[in-house]
Amino acid sequence: MRKIYTKTFVYFAEIQYIYNEINNRNIIMDILNFTYYFLIYNLIFN
Predict the structure, then answer these.
(1) What is the distance between the alpha carbons of residues 39 and 17, in angstroms, rounded to a whole number?
(2) Number of domains into which the chain is organized
(3) DSSP string spanning 5-28?
């Protein structure tokens, strides 16, 4: 019983880790996209 519990716990911990990685990457991409569009906007409208 304990073995199954540990396996499930590790499994969920890995899912959580992957989920966090994806979220961090998305935040970074959002920042990059924002700066990119901001620069283009400034180039066009200045």
Answers:
(1) 33
(2) 1
(3) HHHHHHHHHHHHHHHHHHHHHHHH
Q: Is the entire prediction scored with pTM above 0.70?
A: no
Token reading at 19: 């989920």
What's the DSSP call for residue 1?
A: -
Amino acid residing at 24 = N
Q: What was the pLDDT predicted at 8?
A: 81
CA torsion through residues 17, 18, 19, 24, sign: positive
The residue segments making up the domain with residue 22 are: 1-46
35-40's contacts with Cβ under 8 Å and 24+ in sequence apart are none
Q: What is the pLDDT of residues 2-31, one digit of tens each?
A: 777 778 888 888 888 888 888 888 888 888
